[in-house]
Amino acid sequence: GPVDGLRVHGAGNAPRVLRAAVFASCALRGEAMALPARVITTHTNFAPVAALGRRLAGVPYTVVAHGIDIHARLASSRARALCGADAVWAVSRWSRQRCLDRGVPESSIGIVGNTVDDARFSPGSRDRGLVARYGIAADEKVVLTVARLDPAERYKGYDRVVQALAALRDAVGPVRYLLVGSGDDRARVEQLAAECGVADSVTFCGFVPDDALAAHYRLADAFAMPSLAEGFGIVFLESMACGVPVLGGDRDGSADALADGELGLLVDPGETRAVAAGLAQLLRREGPRTWFEPDALRDACLRRHGRAAFAARVASLMSEPPCGVHACAG
């Protein structure tokens, strides 16, 4: 692999209801614990299992802290396991601060931003079949969001984009908003679009499989996720790898994904007018030239967030000694 001497073991593709049990079995089985130079790296939800592994076999563990997993209310066992980890890798500065708020010792926390599959996401022409499926007119500008439509994930800002559409249409002309993702929040968002008088501009694409995502990004003139509590936002990287300019919120981990505004436009996600003005700016192609040259945007994204940069960050943190065992603050 890209990190010499590092082997990664996963728990496979077990059904969701069985994943915790399968992971625990894989992590704690005797042969996995017996070998030297072994580290368990896990998500917050599985941190108690990793903590048990350390107690039983002395195997150190690292917790990767994303966003909602640490921002939301944590069960006491997860909170203790997070605080007691040998190391915590936050995906952004915002996530790092959430870890500090939880009582994780500052010395334990490193930052490892997410990466993107550059073989799957790349610039390309619009898929005519998708253009026909969604009825995209030749004169329409397309704004895209990829997000799970779940009440717990409204912080991703799709409401704000819907609320900004009327002003955006006034500013730039016909706009189509493609919302990729499924979930229980769809009916409410449909009602919101109707109340805002923009139902004819919003297309709910529903669930899109991974192998069709790149084609959907390529439909867009701009990608928008003006989130309030996003840990990082891999979707930003996927969009930029496809050469599509992005808009994010300036209050959360989006700032790391967008390199503090170097790779994309950051706006106040709590202000509808700011979102509308920001999207109008992108649709008018106003901003750094790199944002609007697909290959240049992709290259800039991969220099900072590509596999090589990610591997270097991981290798650097893996070379550091464990930070030790810490007591949980609560």
UniProtKB/TrEMBL annotation:
<dbReference type="InterPro" id="IPR028098">
    <property type="entry name" value="Glyco_trans_4-like_N"/>
</dbReference>
<dbReference type="Pfam" id="PF13439">
    <property type="entry name" value="Glyco_transf_4"/>
</dbReference>
<dbReference type="InterPro" id="IPR001296">
    <property type="entry name" value="Glyco_trans_1"/>
</dbReference>
<feature type="domain" description="Glycosyltransferase subfamily 4-like N-terminal">
    <location>
        <begin position="19"/>
        <end position="120"/>
    </location>
</feature>
<dbReference type="GO" id="GO:0016757">
    <property type="term" value="F:glycosyltransferase activity"/>
</dbReference>
<dbReference type="InterPro" id="IPR050194">
    <property type="entry name" value="Glycosyltransferase_grp1"/>
</dbReference>
<protein>
    <submittedName>
        <fullName>Glycosyltransferase family 4 protein</fullName>
    </submittedName>
</protein>
<keyword id="KW-0808">Transferase</keyword>
<feature type="domain" description="Glycosyl transferase family 1">
    <location>
        <begin position="134"/>
        <end position="287"/>
    </location>
</feature>
<dbReference type="Pfam" id="PF00534">
    <property type="entry name" value="Glycos_transf_1"/>
</dbReference>
